[in-house]
């Protein structure tokens, strides 16, 4: 059994201040705003002469806890600050950024719930025709790289006002990152935006601390050690230990590295005398040796290969990505440093996850759960999708390499209490106009990770695993789904609630650990279809995705069908698959296509791999190396499909049943030496070309039989 005293001791060594324990700012006397103001008239109606903080967002303002600007705004309001919102401003000049006047403390800039480039472009780099986060789904209401553009306009509007950037667009660009849209490595967004500080991940802790410190008169430059934050430094702090990670193929014997900051008389130049004396005290340790050295974890950092190096050396890029992901556990992560020419991007350890009481508090704010009245009832598709859904948790310990959720929200699950969730369902029932009795989702990043965490906080505090469920489910992971099952039962028996649907994606290999949960889900909460994501059938590709064997899917389907039948329901699984993922070659895609045909799946909506910033699979895509293993120059490269035509070909395998893809598939099968799969029998993948078949009717003078 786990020693609970040791567990508590391991957790208490980290000083964690609750986000609702701060004395409120003096402006609390104004009370809560019906909606956070978006105009001077609204400010006047509230009696405000100014805003303390102004949030600039690329999304329409929807006062709902599923929208980032609402959560952040209401959180800051609960701290006593006056918060205004500038939503989807015109960015050709700074006029719209002055509409609420100059903020007293800072601008908070976010690209919104979705990355602006992923929002605008498909995986094939075609421009999308709509924007789900805009009234009437109108496209073109946000600039590409919104955080950079908005930050520059804020600086133009009020030069001396601090700029704080955050949200998923900034979070995934905190260090040098491969940019799919320009096919290049870009600098940290801190450099390009000229912002003062970047808050990454779920940033409530950092944001509350930062806001109160600025309100007390501190400068952002004094808060460079703030957890969950990244800043730009011109000089590194004194008396710290540097763990050097700038090389990947170390020799068997490692000589002591000279201190690169040490002053040497014989190499003195005119500017050497100006070197800060603090830098002379930096102790440098090679990465392979740092675990053998006694290092003060609170005064050490890992030096990543510089922006210039990862730009010119894809192997070093993969290595830097590997180190970044290994330093993701907030209880043991080290600070990361990456040089950009003469500047140092300093990335502090991730924020500590919120406790249940704090999560409940964040979701208890006075959200109106509707778009701002200025939109006059215009349809906002993203709002329509989530207006009767309830977010029950955050985070994901799946670690799928192609997904950005883990990089942004972390691997530690943050769950709300059952009471808080039930209260929100009742609020939806009583206040949402036109509510029909259906809760559209009880979920989060994953449907079935609610209250699932490591059994031991001591083990959790030392863990470096990239996933709790790959290559197998960790023995220390709590897999008991009973809290989720109990929540479902209580939710659907509430007066006025006719149906509770589960629309979030399901981690089926995890669900197999609790068949009672599967029975409950299938019997009561599947409306005919259940989304599930095997992503591929082939082990070689699945290993690059960090996804379970397709056998797990088969096991889950057996239970799904059994429980559906016993409930007297005709229900189906809707599987999702990805084409052109790093590691997937044409042979893997052919085998997947044959698997789909064998199981009589004819997918309509299929995905092509989309290299999002900072994802491990994106590092694979750019470097053609596997950062899930120690990166070496001599390691064999993995297959990566980058050519657009080749990506389309892999996508065609997923839609083998679409006659538009048959010509392409015929050519591909012939090139692969698999022409035996072309024909009109059941075992064939695609039919003969109709033109060839038509000519064959007259072959050797035989009559055309109709």
Description:
The protein is an alpha/beta fold. It folds into 3 domains: 15-234, Rossmann fold (3-Layer(aba) Sandwich); 235-249 and 277-341, no CATH class; 381-629, pyruvate-formate lyase- activating enzyme. It contains 25 helices and 24 strands. The strands form 7 sheets. It has an 11-stranded mixed beta sheet, sandwiched between helices. Strands 22-23-24 form a 3-stranded parallel beta sheet. The protein has a two-stranded antiparallel ribbon with strand order 2-15. The longest helix is centred in the C-terminal third of the chain and has 17 residues, at 550-566. 45% of the residues are buried.
Largest sheet: 11 strands, mixed
The domain tally reads 3
CATH homologous superfamily annotation of the largest domain? tm_1862 like domain
Provide the CATH top-level class of the largest domain: Alpha Beta
Beta-strand content: 5-15%
Low-confidence stretches: 1-12, 252-279, 694-706
Helix/strand structural class = alpha/beta
Q: Tally the helices.
A: 25
Strands, total number: 24
Report the mean per-residue pLDDT as an integer.
Answer: 91
Radius of gyration: 27 Å
Question: Judging by the overall fold, what is the CATH architecture of the largest domain?
Answer: Alpha-Beta Horseshoe
General shape: globular
| Portion of residues within helices | 25-40%
CATH fold name of the largest domain, please?
pyruvate-formate lyase- activating enzyme
- The CA-CA distance between the termini, in Å, is 77 Å
Which strand order spans the largest sheet, edge to edge or round the barrel? Answer: 3-1-4-5-8-9-14-13-12-10-11
